[in-house]
Write a structure and sequence with these properties.
Layout (H helix, E strand, L loop, with lengths): L1 E6 L2 E4 L2 E8 L3 E6 L2 E6 L4 E5 L2 E6 L5 E3 L2 E3 L3 H9 L4 E6 L2 E9 L2 E6 L5 H10 L17 H21 L4 H27 L1
Helix pairs in contact: 3-4
Length: 196
């Protein structure tokens, strides 16, 4: 069984360190034994591996990597991000390629078959904010709490609009991923302020 683990913003495969996640304003970077960047473009996010363009992240967090498609189902994506479920299946051409699960403050990728690791490394980076369900003791203080929940509400509005309108799919995808990155940044900044 193949598996990857995200813990404390670090992705590993067993004892092997894959990389550390760094969230920036317009990109997500994973640096270590792999060097992957997810960079904001017009209507999508490009995937660069060792500075070579190898794919993109599109609407509903659909990843196209070296010609192969990976995507969660919309309902699963909503339920996972909102905390209603603790796992999300990632499909490739209609079949489950792997599953991402929350386990003891970690995100774990599991698959009974060999997987293409890069798309799942990217999913772990995107979902890194959601590895621990929100508890009362972790609640952010004002104004970060209001900003965070405002962004979360905006994400759900964009998600609903994506299900109703199909006109500019790239733009919706860009908004959704931008909101996830912004939520992560607000959460990190808010937690740092609380610990000072």
């Amino acid at each position: 069984m193949d598996f990857l683990i995200l813990e404390n913003n670090t992705i590993s495969e067993g004892e092997k360190l894959i990389g550390t996640i760094n969230i920036e304003k317009k990109s997500i970077n994973i640096q270590g034994s792999v060097n992957i960047s997810i960079k904001k473009e017009r209507g999508y996010y490009s995937i660069l591996e060792d500075n070579l363009p190898l794919g993109r992240v599109e609407r509903d967090l659909k990843i196209i990597y070296q010609g192969k498609e990976y995507e969660p189902q919309r309902k699963d994506l909503y339920n996972f991000i909102s905390g209603k479920t603790n796992k999300i299946d990632i499909y490739s051409f209609g079949s489950i390629s792997g599953t991402i699960e929350r386990e003891n403050h970690k995100l774990v990728v599991k698959s009974d078959n060999a997987i293409e690791k890069t798309p799942f490394i990217i999913y772990l980076a995107i979902f890194s904010r959601y590895k621990i369900p929100v508890r009362r003791s972790q609640a952010l203080k004002s104004p970060y709490r209001e900003i965070y929940y405002g962004l979360l509400a905006l994400f759900f509005i964009v998600f609903i609009l994506m299900n109703i309108f199909y006109q500019d799919e790239g733009l919706y995808s860009l908004f959704a991923l931008s909101i996830i990155i912004a939520e992560f940044a607000v959460y990190i900044i808010g937690r740092r302020k609380m610990s000072q």
